Every structure is written in structure tokens, then in C-alpha cells.
């Protein structure tokens, strides 16, 4: 299970580094989603982008410092719960919220496994 946790942590780190970078680089798809589909402002997109980028960096550091991985994965659980609610609230349904649910589950596994070492 140790390597499974590390693989999940690596997948999450790569994904959230990419997600954070996409939001902070004002990717047109992200801007449209945040402003038109979700009804949030650009400031919300930047805040979420910074949080996702920091969580991704924390997961990378977490390979050497398990406590940081624990907290970073916990933040991802919260962010993904919010993402699921945002997708459902904006009328996109659970089919669109499936990917955040998968990331939430992966992050929850990392939180539970890293809590023993944190």
C-alpha cells in the first residue's frame, strides 16, 4: 500500500500543479468556466489557482516530509468538495462532477495513509 499511496500522491501532485498553472496563466477555458458557467469572478479563479499550485508543491515536498503531504492532500479534499458542489450548483450535473470526485477519493486515501506518518 506504500507504493500505491506514493503513486496517488504523484498523480495528484502533477494534476494540481497543472490545474493551478492553468488558472494562474488565465487559460481562456478556465476564465470562461469561472466567469460564465460558475458565476465567479477572476479573483476567485486566481485564489483557487494559487491554492491548487501550493497543494501540488506540498505533495511533491511531501515525499520527504509526510506531514506536508497530509495537509496538502487535506486541502485538495476540501477544494474538490467545493468543485463538486460548484459543478452541481451550476447545473452541469454529477457527470461533470465525477472527475473532482475521483481526485477527492485519491486525496482522501493519501490523507488517511499519510496520517499514520504525519
Provide an overview of this structure.
- With 118 residues, the chain is an all-alpha fold.
- It is built from 6 helices and no strands.
- Helix 1 (2-24) packs across helix 6, helix 3 packs antiparallel against helix 4 (66-89) and helix 4 (66-89) runs antiparallel to helix 6 (98-114).
- The longest helix is centred in the middle third of the chain and has 24 residues, at 66-89.
- The protein is globular and about 40 Å long.
- The two termini are 16 Å apart.
- The mean pLDDT is 94.
Helix vs. strand class: mainly alpha
Shape: globular
- Largest β sheet strand count, sense and barrel closure: none
Helix content: over 70%
Query: Per DSSP, what share of the residues sits in E-state strands of 2 or more residues?
Result: under 5%
How widely separated are the two ends?
16 Å
- Number of helical segments with 4 or more residues: 6
Average of the residue pLDDT scores: 94
SSE string, helices as H and strands as E: HHHHHH
**Low-confidence blocks of residues:** none
Query: For the CA atoms, what is the radius of gyration?
Result: 14 Å
The number of distinct β-strands equals 0
Detail the topology: elements first, then pairings:
Layout (H helix, E strand, L loop, with lengths): L1 H23 L3 H10 L4 H20 L4 H24 L3 H4 L1 H17 L4
Short note summarizing the structure:
By secondary structure, the chain is an all-alpha fold.
Amino acid at each position: 500500500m506504500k507504493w500505491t499511496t506514493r503513486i496517488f500522491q504523484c498523480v495528484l501532485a502533477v494534476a494540481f500543479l497543472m490545474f493551478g498553472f492553468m488558472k494562474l496563466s488565465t487559460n481562456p477555458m478556465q476564465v470562461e468556466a469561472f466567469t460564465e458557467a460558475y458565476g465567479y469572478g477572476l479573483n476567485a479563479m486566481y485564489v483557487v489557482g494559487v491554492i491548487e499550485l501550493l497543494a501540488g508543491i506540498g505533495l511533491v515536498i511531501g515525499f520527504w516530509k509526510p506531514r506536508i503531504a497530509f495537509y496538502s492532500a487535506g486541502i485538495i479534499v476540501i477544494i474538490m468538495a467545493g468543485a463538486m458542489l460548484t459543478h452541481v450548483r451550476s447545473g452541469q450535473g454529477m457527470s461533470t462532477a465525477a472527475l473532482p470526485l475521483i481526485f477527492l477519493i485519491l486525496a482522501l486515501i493519501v490523507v488517511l495513509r499519510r496520517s499514520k506518518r504525519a
